[in-house]
Amino acid sequence: MLMIQRSLTDKVIFSLSGRIEMEHVAELQRLFESEDGGRAIALDLQDVTLVNRDAVGFLAGCERHQIVLANCPAYIREWIVAEKRKDVS
């Protein structure tokens, strides 16, 4: 289960808690598309407990699209880096 909380500062912050799986990716994309294009978007991953491979690919894509991954757990960051290396090869 994934819980999503939205807050506003100088950017739109989506705080995620729980597991991020493939079915959540479409929901997150829809949320991003519904935002006003003038504000930056950040994902706060502090309370994320588990991700699958599809979610890691999505998170790597978020960074490519200038979405900040705040409070990213080390194991997720390492997996994203590994996936980016595969894309380069």
Key phrases:
89 residues; 36% strand; alpha/beta; 3 helices
Molecular structure report:
The protein starts with a strand and ends with a helix. α2 (53-64) links the parallel β3 (40-51) and β4. Strands 1-2-3-4 form a 4-stranded mixed sheet. α2 packs across α3 (74-88). It has one domain: STAS domain (Transcription Regulator spoIIAA), CATH 3.30.750. The longest helix is centred in the C-terminal third of the chain and has 15 residues, at 74-88. The model has no long low-confidence stretch (mean pLDDT 92). The protein has helices at residues 22-34, 53-64, 74-88, and strands spanning 2-8, 11-20, 40-51, 68-70. It contains 3 helices and 4 strands. With 89 residues, it is an alpha/beta fold.
In short:
By secondary structure, the chain is of the alpha/beta class. The protein has 3 helices and 4 strands.
Describe the protein's topology.
Layout: E1 2-8, E2 11-20, H1 22-34, E3 40-51, H2 53-64, E4 68-70, H3 74-88
Parallel strand pairs: 2-3, 3-4
Antiparallel strand pairs: 1-2
